[in-house]
Amino acid sequence: MKSIQFILTIAFLTFSSVQSQGVAATPEYIMELTADWKGERFPDGRPKVSDALLKRMKNIQIEEAWGYLRRKGYHNQYEGDWKILHPDRVMTGRVVTAQYMPLRPDYKELIKVKGAQENRDTIGGSNSWPIEMLVPGDVYVADGYGRIIDGTLIGSNLGNAIFANSQNGVIFDGGVRDVAGLLEIEGFNGWYRGDDPSFLAEQMLSEINTPIRIGRATILPGDVVLANRHGTIFIPAHLASELVLSSEVVGLRDQFGFQRLREKKYAPGQIDTKWTSAIEADFRNWIKEYPDNKLPMTRKELDDYLNNTDKE
Fold first, then answer.
1. Cα separation of 276 and 25, whole Å?
2. Average pLDDT for residues 280-288, to the nearest whole number?
């Protein structure tokens, strides 16, 4: 009798869980996914990394971000081999994720019902749903499993809607159409696998703001993305601030090293290895004379970082 009651309880809980599953992740679920973030959040639960930090992130090199994340144990956050609308530009932002799958009629109908329950527009295509959720500073990141023909996630109309909401761009493991029109959207940028004249036909949206895979990277909603001509890297929100600061300090150390090499004060082998205490002391004196208005961070941030480094 007890075993039957246990089975019925599990069945009820499973049914309740299925019933509550929607297209978009709940704020509670997103907060569980990003529990290490201790700062402000958006109403949808995503970490609200500051605009000022996103701006500073644009000056960070992909290799520096990659190295920092690997030291923290995050080995699967980079993806390359993209077509880019404007390769000369850098894009940073807070990630909104979307998962797309090959079209299956019965599942598509369920998604439509779930979308209606979430008060989404069920007259147009569901590929507009993530776009409606974007806010300034967001980047729309979609797993389209590399499909291009009949898998073009946006054209110029949706591209304009994306930019109107986010003032930013997209990263699609899939296709786009009407590249000429997308190029005309001032300020918009996109990383994508290919372009094709076909419309979205054999692909359907399945989830919004859930974990997705883009090539060899795992992305969570609220991650910070750094995208440039060298690829894309997805940074957990709770690591973004320290990553930026540590990379900025590396940049300052590089400036110091280059200057001392030009002055022939040190040999290349001395700069290109772990610094001696004398060189480190020389750097600390050099950085004290660095103009505050040219530092990428505040003087307090720099001093605190260097003092914490001394303690390690």
1. 51
2. 96
